[in-house]
Automatic annotation (TrEMBL):
<keyword id="KW-0472">Membrane</keyword>
<feature type="transmembrane region" description="Helical">
    <location>
        <begin position="7"/>
        <end position="28"/>
    </location>
</feature>
<dbReference type="InterPro" id="IPR050911">
    <property type="entry name" value="DRAM/TMEM150_Autophagy_Mod"/>
</dbReference>
<feature type="transmembrane region" description="Helical">
    <location>
        <begin position="53"/>
        <end position="73"/>
    </location>
</feature>
<feature type="transmembrane region" description="Helical">
    <location>
        <begin position="112"/>
        <end position="132"/>
    </location>
</feature>
<dbReference type="GO" id="GO:0012505">
    <property type="term" value="C:endomembrane system"/>
</dbReference>
<feature type="transmembrane region" description="Helical">
    <location>
        <begin position="187"/>
        <end position="208"/>
    </location>
</feature>
<comment type="similarity">
    <text>Belongs to the DRAM/TMEM150 family.</text>
</comment>
<feature type="transmembrane region" description="Helical">
    <location>
        <begin position="85"/>
        <end position="106"/>
    </location>
</feature>
<dbReference type="InterPro" id="IPR019402">
    <property type="entry name" value="CWH43_N"/>
</dbReference>
<keyword id="KW-1133">Transmembrane helix</keyword>
<keyword id="KW-0812">Transmembrane</keyword>
<protein>
    <submittedName>
        <fullName>DNA damage-regulated autophagy modulator protein 2-like isoform X5</fullName>
    </submittedName>
</protein>
<feature type="transmembrane region" description="Helical">
    <location>
        <begin position="152"/>
        <end position="175"/>
    </location>
</feature>
<feature type="domain" description="CWH43-like N-terminal">
    <location>
        <begin position="6"/>
        <end position="212"/>
    </location>
</feature>
<dbReference type="Pfam" id="PF10277">
    <property type="entry name" value="Frag1"/>
</dbReference>
Length: 248
């Protein structure tokens, strides 16, 4: 039995979102909606038609990311990973996806503060998520996570954190004053693009484990089959990898 089709989900989410960024950039520049020289990511999705593509793509990315993070959560559970840390990591991932949807729904030119809240959720909690997942990868190595997968994630997490620090520091300067040097803006924009791409590259590395998934099953406990109410309780979703263990 080969790998489950979900093994391509990390690539679809990661590569697809990166392509979307550049498609919106090209459309925005061709319509003179943003500067050609290195705009912020959000600058490429302010005006139509690119704003519609930007919003739809981020919503799809958020949905795909949410599905992927839940699959990751189930995989770690089946591999006897740290339960509390795994649940906390999933919670951070849900907030990251919510922030991503807010960024797409609220353009900064018309609704700045909701847009900024979503950006902080997506970027700051995104850094938290990848570090937590890197820690889990360290705990699961070498049986459930390859040593090279862990090393790549550690490198990507470090570079993303540095990029995020640059973005937040210089972006804060831009946000707080109108008198700033061009180099300050360049540093903030570069940090944002590097962080965004870094987070997506981390998502792509999850292929290392997701490709071992053979099947996905939803297990239901049916209570009161002959009852009038005939209530159904969803117990759990299970991800079956290359092992016989199915955690309760």
């Amino acid at each position: 039995m080969g790998s489950h089709p979900c093994c391509v989900l990390p690539i679809v989410v990661g590569v697809g979102t990166i392509i979307m960024f550049f498609v919106c950039y090209v459309i925005a520049v061709n319509n003179n909606h943003t500067v050609r020289n290195f705009p912020f990511i959000s600058d490429t999705g302010v005006y139509p038609p690119e704003s519609g593509i930007f919003t739809m793509a981020l919503n799809l990315s958020a949905f795909g990311g949410l599905v992927l993070m839940y699959l990751r959560y189930c995989y770690i559970s089946q591999c006897d990973g740290p339960a509390k840390l795994n649940k906390f990591t999933l919670g951070c991932g849900v907030l990251v996806c919510l922030g991503l949807m807010m960024v797409g729904a609220f353009q900064w030119a018309t609704m700045l503060y909701p847009h900024m809240v979503g950006a902080v959720m997506a970027f700051a909690l995104g850094i938290v998520y990848i570090w937590l997942d890197t820690i889990i990868s360290y705990k699961l190595r070498p049986l459930s996570t390859g040593i090279w997968a862990f090393r790549i994630r550690l490198l990507v997490s470090t570079l993303a954190t540095v990029s995020g620090g640059v973005m937040f520091v210089f972006g804060g300067i831009i946000f707080s004053t109108d008198n700033y040097l061009y180099e300050v803006r360049l540093a903030a924009v570069g940090g944002e693009w590097a962080l965004g791409i870094g987070l997506l590259l981390y998502i792509i590395t999850l292929c290392a484990e997701i490709r071992t998934v053979k099947r996905i099953a939803v297990i239901m406990d049916i209570s009161g089959r002959f009852d009038v109410s005939n209530s159904h309780e969803l117990r759990a979703s299970r991800v079956f990898a290359n092992r016989d263990l199915i955690p309760e």
